[in-house]
Amino acid sequence: xxxxxxxxxxxxxxxxxxAGNIKVIGNFDGVIVCGMGGSALPAGIxxxxxxxxxxxxxxxxxxxxxxxxxxxxxxxxxxxxxxxNTEETISAFEEARRRNxxxxxxxxxxxxxxxxxxxxxxxxxxxSGLQPRMALGFxxxxxxxxxxxxxxxxxxxxxxxxxxxxxxPGDSEDQGKKLAKNLKNKIPIIYASSxxxxxxxxxxxxxxxxxxxxxxxFCNYFPELNHNELVGFENNGYPASxxxxxxxxxxxxxxPRIKERMELTAEIxxxxxxxxxxxxxxxxxxxxxxxxxxxxxxxxxYYLALEYKIDPTPVKLNDEFKRRLA
Length: 326
Description:
CATH topology of the largest domain: Rossmann fold
Structural class: alpha/beta
Strand content: 15-25%
Number of strands: 9
CATH architecture of the largest domain: 3-Layer(aba) Sandwich
Shape: globular
Radius of gyration: 20 Å
Distance between the termini: 28 Å
Number of domains: 2
Largest sheet: 5 strands, parallel
């Protein structure tokens, strides 16, 4: 796991190459990305990029069986399954085929790769051997390359390629280790502003704690949480006030009023015994900001697993669930 974090920046170059010249011909007015768990995260990151660049592309993420009711013939369907065997994503793929929609896919193999080969569907084949949540660079770069090839986004793919040199995972390792020590025996709650869909970034932190640290974690966003969730800490004697720890992801470009809400939330919660920690989203370029922060979430959840003396890599309960479901 540690080596996967250190090697992460190399994934972008490989992901771009995997998508190569994949191009789906069509007059598309929207994109539906079908994926579950770690394979849905690339679309969440793309949503943050779209918000930052004010791109006109309509992107919807579908994490379920079949396809959403609002899908149109003019939508491009992109199925992402790192293993290639995610049954919900296979279901979406098969429904898209039945409806004669335009499809492409990203996977390391499995049944999805077999179906793409059988039906002559273009597929970006990415390297296998990682947990899906640790293969974000492969999947995101391939997704961006496909959309650029199809003319659906106007992106300088050099910015993605350059992430290999601009990201330095080792820079945030000590910070992650420190955060992890403060989180031991706590349930993390991650808060962020709704700006640039940073709620998706908070959700990535939640997933990393779930799958790497093997603990419950939750997320929410400003300003909505100040209208309901904040009151949930009012009962000082309730165990949640002692057992939770809040991480607030803070960007220097957040609205001044949102910054005030963040500070005031921490101040109001202090007497309840709830621990609050601020994590600043650093960097100038939006992709550097996002992936640098994700690397910090990797280190924090990795070292929290070590605090509990557990291996962060396997997801035994997920595997057992899938075995029984099969």
